[in-house]
Amino acid sequence: MSVPAPHARGATLLRCPVCAGGLRMADRSLVCDQRHTFDVARHGHVTLLRGAPPTGDDAEMVAARAAVFDAGHYAPLTRALAAAAGETRGGGKGRGDAASAGAAAERVVLDLGAGTGHHLAGVLDALPGALGIALDTSRPALRHAARAHADIAAIVADVWAPLPLRDDTVDLVLDVFSPRNAAEMARVLRPGGTALVVIPTPEHLAELSELHGVHVDPAKVERLERTVGAHLELAGREAVRWTMELDAEDVERVLEMSPAGAHRREGVTPRAATVSGSVELWTFRSPDVGGRAGLWPGDLADDGG
């Protein structure tokens, strides 16, 4: 069985989660100089962890999320991320020349909490030839991510631990509804690199509030400014809003794919609804200078809530 091309291509960008040494591909394994070895699973993902991973999304949650994405209900958000990625340095959007294509092909896109890899695949479509790294704790999710795009390397890893990437190796970080270890984002981003962070607004899925007990934390914006802003420069905020026409089965899946699924109210039956999608897309930039020190272990910055 051959090694997935994205893993072979990105091996030199990675570092050992045990000793922080560089990794190289040897047969179907990633190996460091201390001989710590990490095998590529037959499903296409590799686990880069010290010990057991935190509990990630289970197969049922992943299946619900995949169905919702495949139905196109979050397509406006994927398009917004792809457009923002195309406008970042080296994206080459609208230029169409050989230099632009070459710059895009050399780019590395890291998706933290990537899940099924749906949004990352959309971004990679906007950056032909770029390498995508999907990082998540959920093996069922990463089985989807490994198949979501030919240029995705799927990695099981903990966002709260030091990320298994070398310093200054990533051009673009995606963080969509995921925990935010801002210090590690800053460490792995190249000078002048970009982080796209998506958080829900109080209006997101508001029409389904009678079905669960989950609400958007009003301190989320302040916490994002304080934590990520301590490591990266805020470059912009964009509201992304859209409408989803959901039948009863779609509503059930939207609940199952999110934390709301664990806080369902008893005695309330899902029914068809017109539901609001409402998020903010924040753009952060890494200072255009080198020499940022690596962190070991990670300087944790935010709980992602």
What does this structure look like?
- This protein is of the alpha/beta class and 305 residues long.
- The chain has one domain: 3-Layer(aba) Sandwich (Rossmann fold), CATH 3.40.50.150.
- 27% of the residues lie in helices and 25% in strands.
- It has 9 helices and 11 strands.
- The chain has helices spanning 5-10, 59-70, 75-87, 98-105, 118-126, 139-148, 182-188, 220-227, 248-256, and strands spanning 23-26, 29-32, 37-39, 45-47, 108-112, 131-136, 152-156, 170-176, 189-200, 233-246, 273-285.
- Strands 4-7-6-5-8-9-11-10 form an 8-stranded mixed sheet, with helices on both faces. The chain has a 3-stranded antiparallel sheet with strand order 1-2-3, with no helix packed on it.
- Helix 5 links the parallel strand 5 and strand 6.
- GO terms for molecular function: methyltransferase activity.
- Keywords: Methyltransferase, Transferase.
- This is Methyltransferase domain-containing protein.
- Residues 15-49 form the 23S rRNA (guanine(745)-N(1))-methyltransferase N-terminal domain.
List the helices and strands and how they pair.
Elements: H1 5-10, E1 23-26, E2 29-32, E3 37-39, E4 45-47, H2 59-70, H3 75-87, H4 98-105, E5 108-112, H5 118-126, E6 131-136, H6 139-148, E7 152-156, E8 170-176, H7 182-188, E9 189-200, H8 220-227, E10 233-246, H9 248-256, E11 273-285
Parallel strand pairs: 4-7, 5-6, 5-8, 6-7, 8-9
Antiparallel strand pairs: 1-2, 2-3, 9-11, 10-11
